[in-house]
Every structure is written in structure tokens, then in C-alpha cells.
Amino acid sequence: MMLFLQQWFGELLKLFARQRTYIGFGAFVALEILILLLIKKFGMGPIQKAIVGSGQSFEYYFSALTVASTIMGFAIFLLGALFLSLVAGDIVAKEGEDGHMRLLLARPVSRFRLLLLKYLTCTGYAFLLVQFFAWTSFFLGLILRGWGGGYFAIVPEVSVVAFYDWGPGLARYALSSLYLGVSMTVISSIAFFLSCFRIKPAAATIGALTYVLVDFIMRNSGFMENYQHLLVTKHMAAWGRILAENIDWPLVWRGYAVILAVNITLFTLGYAVFESRDLKS
């Protein structure tokens, strides 16, 4: 077990030694600052109308938590999908392209173990990137509004609207960010699966991004109204139910059971593809 953890740590070091790993972090910070400046200049717009329309005090609920949640709602899915696909699509395909796989497999390590280490690395990156975005948004929200106030949570995808005081709101925000991090591992799993084929890293990245965006568009087009259970973005949105005042746990666990099944299936299929490849030629 200790050797496995050391090898995983080595994979993480290798991942964070690449410049492209940090592009996502930099892009998120730049976007957060831009949105924060726009909020400061133009206000909260539709969020303000929703709070006032619900008969609540905008001044009380215009807090760091509401600002952070709004920033995340704007950007996490599209930008997250882009950068998770970029990193996970690269993790196997790039080393295969460079010929590093032959060197790695020359060590006494199985293909399954090598692939499992890389899969855990890219899913760990997905979770870390979401946490980074959630808490830097919160930190910038603190700069704008300071500590305290209420929390107005709105997730239209799952019809959740809720109002919290500061303490319970902070706890619910932290919990939802953990669930969101798990949801986003689906995107890195798709890119990882494509990366196991003998293709260019860019092709794996574009393929994963295309699949996720098509799934997202079909979900919002209305044409799949009766078949939304077949769309992965439908189940990814289960994290939003954590923000409801009364959490519907059966629906949450059903969504995450599907996410777990999709992740395991993609890893298994990726391993089957990788195991069948001739890495010597």
C-alpha cells in the first residue's frame, strides 16, 4: 500500500510539473476577478431580483457566500469541462505519443496498476480544481462583502431555491462543493477513457469536450425531456440538491450511484483498450 501511495505521489508530481496543469487555476482566478468587478459595478442583476421577489432583504443576502455561489454557477461547468478534458485527455495519450509507456512498463508494474494510478491522478485533479474554484470565489467574495450575512442559493437545473443564515449557509456551501467535485470527475473519466486509445492528446481532449457539450445541449434543448435519465449532465446536477433546505437524499444517492457506475465503466473500458494495445511498435 505504501508503495502504491508513493507511486501515486510520483504521478501527481509529474502532473503538476506540466505548465498546462496550471492553466485552469489561472483561468478561474482571472474569471473570478472579472465577474467580481462586474458585480461591484453593475450589481447582482437577476440574483437581486430573485431575492427581492421572494420578499427577502437583498442587503442581508448579498454576502460572500451568495457572490461565490453566483460565480461558480456562471463558470464551473463550461470552464471546468474544458480544463479537466485538457488534463485528463493528455494523461495517457501524451505519454504513449512520447514513447514513455515502454519505459514505465519496463518496471515491475502491471498495466492495470499504471492505469489506475493515472486515473486516480486525473480524478484527484478534478476534485482539487473544483475546491480551488469554490474557495477562491469565497475568498474574493469576502473581500467584496466581508464576513457574515445570509446565503441565497439557487440552482435552476434542479429547481432549488433556498435562504440560509451565515453558519448553516457556510456548512451547506462547503458540503455542496464536495459533491460538485465528485460530479466533475465524470468529465475527467470521459477524457481519460478516450486518452487510452492510440490517438493524439488533443483528439482525446476535443472528443471529451464535444461529448459533454452535446450532452449539455441535448439536455437543455427539450428534445430529451422524457429521456434525461440517459444524459450524464442530468446526474451531474445532483450536487445542486445539497443546497435545498430539505435534502432529497434518495435522489442525491441515485445521481451519484449513476456517476460512480459511469466512472467505473469508463475506467474498465479504458483499461480493456489499453491492455490490448501494442506499445512496442
UniProtKB/TrEMBL annotation:
It comes from Prosthecobacter vanneervenii. Pfam families: ABC2_membrane_4. PANTHER family: INTEGRAL MEMBRANE PROTEIN-RELATED (PTHR37305), MEMBRANE PROTEIN (PTHR37305:SF1). This is ABC-2 type transport system permease protein. The lineage of its organism: Bacteria, Pseudomonadati, Verrucomicrobiota, Verrucomicrobiia, Verrucomicrobiales. Keywords: Membrane, Transmembrane, Transmembrane helix. The chain crosses the membrane at residues 21-40, 60-93, 114-135, 173-194, 201-218, 253-274.
